[in-house]
Write a structure and sequence with these properties.
- The structure is a single chain.
- The protein has 172 residues and is an alpha+beta fold.
- The chain folds into two domains: 31-61, no CATH class; 64-170, LytTr DNA-binding domain (OB fold (Dihydrolipoamide Acetyltransferase, E2P)), CATH 2.40.50.
- Helices cover 34% and strands 28% of the residues.
- It is built from five helices and ten strands; from the N terminus they run αααβββββαβββββα.
- Strands 5-4-3-7-6 form a five-stranded antiparallel beta sheet.
- A hairpin with a 4-residue loop joins strand 4 (90-95) and strand 5 (100-103).
- The radius of gyration is 24 Å and the shape is globular.
- It starts with 5 loop residues before the first helix and ends with a helix.
Length: 172
């Protein structure tokens, strides 16, 4: 009778299962760190669950947005941003302290910087922080009033998304 090593049998069965399921063992010596990070970033962007986890992690940290303004770099906490308005090739950023920054970037650039569970794009030219919503109308023409006395029209395609996010914040 041959000596039978149980560990070798388990490793062989595991290897066979990997090959059967089209998984290939990794050789960690040949991995390029840059390609691994790019692959992880791609996977997070493609997988809704990973994207949600990433957004939740972003909310727990009080991230700061560097703003290049008047020859200086100011850091603004994301929690202080009330809204962003597009104006041609610039974006106007409003803070809860009443400061307004005109930034030389498109609104699309900032769309990816903010966590999706706190910021929502209400139309093609405005992103708002739902924590600073003072009220909204539910009629055919949906309007959102912000705490800094600004008001924005909500596009009809975004109306349901905004109502659901506001209800989540209110706990309804």
């Amino acid at each position: 009778m041959e000596n039978y090593n149980l560990n070798e049998a388990k490793q062989g069965a595991f290897r066979d299962e990997l090959v059967e399921n089209n998984f290939k063992p990794l050789n960690f010596n040949n991995l390029n760190p840059v390609s691994v990070v790019k692959n992880i970033h791609y996977q997070v962007q493609q997988n809704p669950l990973l994207k949600l986890i990433n957004n939740l992690a972003a909310v727990t940290e009080d991230k700061k947005l560097p703003i290049h303004y008047s020859g200086r770099v100011n850091f603004v906490n994301l929690s202080e941003v009330v809204c962003l308005e597009a104006e041609s090739n610039y974006t106007r950023l409003h803070t809860n302290g009443g400061k307004i920054y005109n930034l030389p970037r498109h609104l699309k650039y900032f769309d990816a910087c903010f966590p999706e569970n706190k910021f929502v794009r209400v139309n093609k030219s405005v992103i708002i922080n739902i924590d600073y919503i003072q009220g909204y109308s539910k009629g055919a023409l949906c309007i959102v009033w912000m705490k800094n006395n600004l008001e924005f029209e909500v596009s009809r395609r975004k109306k349901n998304e905004i109502n659901s996010k506001i209800n989540k914040v209110e706990g309804l």
